Each structure stands twice: as structure tokens, then as C-alpha cells.
Amino acid sequence: MKKLLIVSSVVALFASSMFAADGATIYKKCIACHGAKAEKVFNNKVPALTSLDAAAIVASLQDYKAGKANKFGMGAMMKPIATPLSEDDAKAVAGYIQTLK
């Protein structure tokens, strides 16, 4: 019984890490507007993502996803990008952006 419990725990741990959100991969969709290092100031309005903390990025993505945000008039552009992102995806991409500072 103990062996079964240990094996199932190891399998669960491996599976969860295998499907963990990859912020770098997710961010590839953002490069065109925000730059490879999240340094671009888009449309002379949107601040560089590296100037924001992770919590602000996650909150913005969630608001865009819910259709509650139209910061800098970018709601229509950001909603389809944010909609497929899970909360874990948003946290992963926000964490990745923090590494670019």
C-alpha cells in the first residue's frame, strides 16, 4: 500500500510540473507589441511591462479577460489575447516579465 501511495504521489508531481504554465512561451504572443524584453512603450501610452509588478500584470490580464478593462483604449486588442489564459498562465507570464527587468 505504501508503494502505491509513493508511486501515485510521484506521478502526480511529475504530471503537474509537466503541464505547468511556461511564462516564456506564453510571452511570445506579446513580443510584437511589448518587445522581446517587455521594454516597449506601446502607442506612446502603454507603459513598459517591466515597469509593472507581477500583481498588476495579473490583475490587468484578468480584467481584460473579463472585459472589465479598457486601459489606454487597448481593451479590444487585449481581450482576445487574455481570454484563453488561465490564472496560472497569467501568473507565469507575469513572473517571466519580472525576470526581464
From TrEMBL:
Pfam families in the record: Cytochrom_C (PF00034)
Q: Keywords, A to Z?
A: Heme, Iron, Metal-binding, Signal
Q: Where is the Cytochrome c domain?
A: 18-101
Give the signal peptide range.
1-20
Please name the GO terms that the record assigns under molecular function.
Answer: electron transfer activity; heme binding; metal ion binding
Cross-referenced InterPro entries = Cyt_c-like_dom, Cyt_c-like_dom_sf, Cytochrome_c_Oxidase_Subunit
Know the name of this protein?
C-type cytochrome
Q: Which organism is it from?
A: Campylobacter californiensis
